[in-house]
Amino acid sequence: MKMSIKRKFIIGFLLIFYIGYNTMSFFMNKLIVENNKEIISKELVTFEKDLNTYLRQYFELKNKDMYSNNFNNSSNGIASDLSIKVGNRIMIYSYEGKFLVDSANANGKVLNYEDSDNKNNYSDEDLKISINNKSAFTIVPVKDKYLVVFSCPIINNKKSIGIVRSVMDYSEIFSSSKNLLKLTNTFVLLVFGVIFLFVVLVATKITIPILKLSKVIKEVAKGNFEEDINITSKDEIEELSLNFNKMKNRIKNQIETIENDRDDLRKIAGHRKVFFDNITHEMKTPLTIISGYCQILVKQDFKDKEFARKSMKKINDESERMHNMVIELLEISKVESNLIAYIEEEVNVSQILGVACNDMKIRANKYEIHIEKVIDKEVIVLGNPNEIRRVIINIIDNSIKYGNVNSTINVKLSKENGNCNIIIKDKGQGIPSNKLEMIFEPFYRVDKQISREAGSSGLGLSIVKKIIDKHNGSIKIISEKGKGTEVHIVIPLKVYNIVTSC
Fold first, then answer.
1. Could you give the CA distance from residue 350 to residue 24 in angstroms, rounded to a whole number?
2. Distance between CA atoms of 331 and 341, rounded to whole angstroms?
3. How far apart are CA 93 and CA 72, in angstroms?
4. CA 14 to chain CA mean position, Å
5. Three-state secondary-structure class, residue 458
6. Distance, CA of 152 to CA of 23 (rounded, Å)
7. 381: part of which helix (H) or strand (E)?
């Protein structure tokens, strides 16, 4: 089921509010409780000091030593006097935790006289801790009140002589904390309410222009390019509408251009016909040679085995040449007719060149030729990765074909002046200077006899040149006969515009 953006905004906000509000309430409540405990703890430290001072004075006035027997025997007086002095309920225990006196006459049971419904919510944990000579308190909620039960061991000469427990009412502190929490929650609700209204208004303001845009897009999909979007919101929505109008007008102009270019497409078709006529002419030579040798070999009285072997080799060479020519002609046909699908994307030339060198090592090892590479990392251009790889493979393949046995091919990749620079250098037969100008012409071969492999069609460098041109790059060949060849390829690192040739 489709859900509108406005509804998504509202549901998302309510979900965030629900989680945020409950989380905040939980931690606020926890923080207030901890703060209350801290306040109570500080007050009880003072109470404990006053209690010890009072007991020392009490025994001095009675001319008695502070021992456990005297403490136990005086427990009634201590409980009565202390309860009046501090205004709280006082319970006296022996140092072993045995109940002695309760000023409220409740036999030391904290909740029985207060609220029988809550008696199971309280434990004597504070008393148990005091038996181990440590002060402790427990907070006991009773209906709308909060009681604090404080147990304090009475120490004399580092030895406990008894335990005093006091029940104190801290309802006021907890009531203030609850009121603060309620006030905070109310304020948060008001703030979230204002934010919620703002979110609804913003979502409405966003969705209305989007609905208008959707309506116009449907009209454009039907072929109606006359309707514009007029939004004056002074924000990104207005900018989006302006950009959409520009895009729509540009599409309209492109469609008109395509319609006007129908005659040019017919010219391209004619160009393809002429091109394939040239292919037919170029293929006649290998076909004629193959046909001639085959006619000789099929004669029944033919017995010259050496001539037959040479004939078969010649037929194989010409077949290989024709096979390569067909493949390369198809590629150059696509490039020249602009039929090849150029993918404008980021191309990591470093990675492509490294893989290509590794792939070509097997072929180079056949002739004991070594490939040495120096490649900068992360050299990125925009273009077609398959076509850039084809360029590199073609150049390295030529270096292997025409390089000297047991020589080295040096491959270098670098970034300079905003360009990707590729240099491939070999030590081979080289190219005469008077033939360098024609090296990129289709079907041109410097000297087919110097290649160690048959089947060269003379189309490889022509394809390379056209691919580099498509990438707004340049290729330069420096060569000297007998010394080798050096190929320099430069491709811009920035965005290129593909040039359409007709």
1. 53
2. 12
3. 8
4. 28
5. coil
6. 37
7. strand 380-383
- DSSP lists the bridge partners of residue 38 as none
And the tokens for 157? Answer: 């000469």
Cβ(431)–Cβ(401) under 8 Å?
A: no
d(CA 51, CA 153): 10
Q: How far, in Å, CA of 473 to CA of 147, rounded?
A: 87
Question: 383 is written with which tokens?
Answer: 């273009």
Angle at 125 between CA 86 and CA 142, to 5 degrees: 60
Average pLDDT of the chain?
Answer: 80
| Structure tokens, 179 | 């009121």
Is the CB of residue 347 less than 8 Å from the CB of residue 383?
yes
Q: Phi first, then psi: give them for residue 159, nearest 5 degrees.
A: -135, 135
Q: Does 286 or 63 have the greater pLDDT score?
A: 63
Using the 8-state DSSP alphabet, how is residue 499 labeled? Answer: P
Query: Amino acid identity of 174?
Result: F
Contact yes or no for 106/133 (Cβ under 8 A) = no
Region class of 203: left (phi > 0), else alpha (psi between -120 and 50), else beta: alpha
Measured in whole angstroms, the distance separating CA 468 from the mean position of its chain's CA atoms is 34
State the Cα–Cα distance between residues 99 and 69, nearest whole angstrom. 14
From first CA to last CA, the distance across the chain in angstroms is 49
Cross-strand bridge partners of residue 160 = 155
Sequence-ordered list of residues with C-beta below 8 angstroms from that of 219, at least 6 positions apart, any chain: 227
Q: Which helix (H) or strand (E) holds 462?
A: helix 460-470
Q: What is the pLDDT of residues 214-244, one digit of tens each?
A: 888 787 777 777 777 777 777 777 787 788 8
CA geometry: angle at 424 spanning 419 and 429, to 5°?
A: 145
Average pLDDT over residues 203-224: 78
Rounded Cα distance between 275 and 240, Å, is 47
- Bridge partners, 424 (sequence order): 411, 487
Q: What count of Cα atoms within 13 Å lies in the side-chain half-sphere of residue 373? A: 20
- Rounded CA-CA distance 19/13 in Å is 10
Given a contact cutoff of 8 angstroms between Cβ atoms, the answer to whether 167 and 139 are in contact is: no
For 394, phi and psi rounded to 5 degrees?
-65, -45
| pLDDT tens-digit series, residues 407-458 | 999 999 999 888 999 999 999 888 888 788 778 776 666 665 455 454 455 6
65 phi, psi to nearest 5 deg: -80, 150
